[in-house]
Design a protein that fits this description.
By secondary structure, the protein is an alpha+beta fold. The chain has ten helices and eight strands. The strands form three sheets. A four-stranded antiparallel beta sheet has the order 2-5-7-8, with no helix packed on it. Strands 1-6 form a two-stranded parallel ribbon. Strands 3-4 form a two-stranded antiparallel ribbon. The longest helix is centred in the middle third of the chain and has 68 residues. It starts with a helix and ends with a helix.
Length: about 450
């Protein structure tokens, strides 16, 4: 009886674990962006780069702080070196040499050393460089945020586009199949020519082909969005926003007249980081002409013996200690330091030129992004009106075709025009969303 009770619990636990393993997501566009800014793999690594830079900064700082090192050494002189000394030192005949050995078989000792850097110009520059190094990766994180946001907006829009396309094509297919059936029945009654039926079959075949393609495209677009979100491509994901509502919410006319300052763009700030780094490199080369000053304290014990007895209480240890100060003054390097400084100066000028170039390209990029956004709004409004006209034309042609007042060619042409207008309208909605995202990326809006 107890076993029968345990088995259902075990099965229930497995089912619960399986359901928990397969996560289900439901995101609006803003929720998708928020999730990606935390879970996108590029975002995760950008955060790790900042942590590495922080540790690197402390590593540089620690170079100027006290350094303490300990050492323990042991030496077994299993064959001592033999030296020759004049024999007369030991009372022997003049002109002869006596063979002697110095030292003991076993030597051991331990020591502690404390060193402190007092002054080094390159250390001061290194501290400044470590701050710039951290700032670069912080700016790079902001750049990654901006790129991931734009990527999510585009991927989200592509999924909605594919989904809306599937729905429209399925609706067109149903209507077309009914029209084809009615036309085929009319043909069988001998009231119209077979060409009318064949023309509709061609159109239906084209719609079916497009529907199959867009269905596959939707699946691929969804998986691409999942990758950008940082979730498993097999996870269940549904999107709560609708394409038309998103497009209307992105019709921001105020953004078209927004002021643009290229110095606020993250790409400009990163270029400024490179200028700062080149400037510090030039300072580093100049600092190498300055003297360096350091101090150190050493303390230790040594012990000797012909037998290994270092752990005996009777073993004698001899201590020593010293204090030292080291001053190193560069005097003449055959102009090598000057050559390195000049190289660094030229590299700084190159970085300044690149910064100016980046500023001009950002201004041009802003004008281009603004123009594209304005054009996308115009195309959206135009395609919306064109769709209404295409729907009316197709409906009129359908009535005329059924009444025998219009040819199959005219009706099919109206259908194709409607289908093209439908896809054009969907595409312009996505363009409004993506072009606004591109403009905000240049401006630097968050």
């Amino acid at each position: 009886m107890k076993k029968l009770f345990i088995i259902p619990l075990f099965v229930f636990a497995l089912a619960a674990q399986s359901q928990e393993a397969k996560q289900i997501y439901n995101f609006s566009l803003e929720q998708a962006i928020s999730h990606a800014l935390t879970n996108n793999r590029s975002e995760i690594n950008a955060g790790r780069d900042i942590e590495i830079a922080k540790k690197k900064k402390w590593e540089t700082t620690a170079m100027g702080l006290p350094q303490i090192n300990g050492a323990v050494n042991y030496q077994d002189n299993f064959k001592l070196q033999t030296s020759l000394l004049p024999a007369q030192i030991f009372g022997g005949p003049a002109g002869e040499f006596a063979e002697v050995t110095f030292g003991t078989k076993h030597n051991g000792g331990g020591s502690l050393s404390l060193t402190q850097l007092i002054f080094d110009g390159s250390y001061i520059v290194a501290l400044q460089a470590s701050k710039t190094y951290l700032q670069f990766y912080e700016n790079y994180k902001v750049k990654t945020d901006s790129e991931v946001k734009e990527m999510i907006i585009n991927a989200y829009g592509n999924v909605l586009l594919a989904d809306e396309s599937v729905q429209i094509l399925q609706k067109n297919k149903v209507i077309l199949e009914k029209t084809l059936f009615d036309t085929d029945q009319t043909y069988k009654n001998g009231l119209i020519e077979e060409e009318n039926v064949e023309q509709l079959k061609i159109t239906l075949s084209s719609v079916n082909s497009n529907l199959n393609y867009v269905t596959r495209l939707k699946e691929i677009s969804m998986k691409m969005l999942k990758v950008n979100l940082g979730i498993d491509i097999d996870a269940a994901l549904t999107l709560s926003d609708k394409l038309e509502l998103l497009a209307q919410n992105n019709l921001d006319l105020a953004l078209k007249s927004a002021e643009f300052d290229p110095k606020g763009n993250i790409n400009y700030l990163i270029s400024q980081n490179f200028v700062d780094q080149r400037n510090l490199e030039m300072k580093l080369q100049k600092s190498k002409a300055l003297p360096t000053l350091a101090a150190g304290v050493n303390f230790g014990y040594n012990s000797f013996g012909n037998t290994f007895s270092f752990f005996n209480s009777s073993q004698r240890y001899f201590n020593y200690s010293n204090l030292g100060i080291s001053l190193n003054v560069p005097l003449f390097s055959s102009f090598a330091r000057s050559a390195r400084t000049q190289q660094a100066k030229i590299a700084l000028e190159k970085a300044k030129t690149d910064l100016t170039d980046a500023e001009q390209k950002l201004k041009l990029g802003y004008q281009n992004a603004k123009s594209n956004y304005e054009y996308s709004i115009e195309q959206y409004n135009s395609s919306k009106e064109n769709l209404k006209l295409a729907e009316r034309i197709e409906k009129k042609q359908q009535i005329k075709f059924k009444e025998g007042l219009s040819s199959s060619f005219d009706f099919t042409e109206a259908q194709r025009q409607l289908y093209t207008s439908q896809q054009s309208y969907l595409q312009t909605m996505v363009d409004v969303i993506s072009k606004k995202a591109a403009l905000e990326k240049v401006i630097g809006n968050k």
